Amino acid sequence: MTSVSPAGAIPPRQARSRAALERLLSAAQEVLVTRGFDEFTIAAVAEKAGVSVGGVYRRFTGKDQLLETVLDRALDDLQSTVSAALATPTPDLAGAVSAFAGALADYLGRTGPLYTAALTASRRPDKRDRALAVLTGLQRVFFDAALPHAAEITHPAPSTALNTALRTIIGAGVHRAATAPLWPDGLGWEQWASEMAEMATGYLTRS
């Protein structure tokens, strides 16, 4: 995972300091995922990380900067998870779609509604641009994996079909992560990924 420093801050240079920051951010992410925004406090993060409240404030100006850094880290995690899953060429189109859906499911299964929060928590233009840049990166990775198998796509507009499949998988995954506590579908993330991949592949290769 890419090391993330507090937004606007200079990354720590010493290995021990970087490791301490990563532990703190991991604790903050766990608090956010398991307890939600209402219980995301400096005190809760400090307790989870095993540090003092003052120790958190020595690295972050407050809750908002800590939250912003956690969400930036989550976006990096998403991009690296999907990129790693599709780094090895797949034997066919179904394999590419399945690898993408599986990587997204793996990420969302670990982070819950965190990615939804990363997209919606800030209204600042630079944060919207950051989230959109990650989405564009996911699109590029997916296209790079799928286009070598373009001959399998029977849709009359292959690029349009791939883009629609991509957006459908991402949109469904984010919606599922956000609504699962209130509207469970009875599926595990692995099964969800399999169902989504089968549906998307069927759309791309429809006769």
TrEMBL record:
Residues 41-60 bind DNA. It comes from the Bacteria. Residues 18-78 form the HTH tetR-type domain. Keywords: DNA-binding, Transcription, Transcription regulation. One of its GO terms (molecular function) is transcription cis-regulatory region binding. It holds the Pfam family TetR_N. InterPro entries: DNA-bd_HTH_TetR-type_CS, Homeodomain-like_sf, HTH-type_TetR-like_transc_reg, HTH_TetR. This is TetR/AcrR family transcriptional regulator. It comes from Mycolicibacterium brumae.
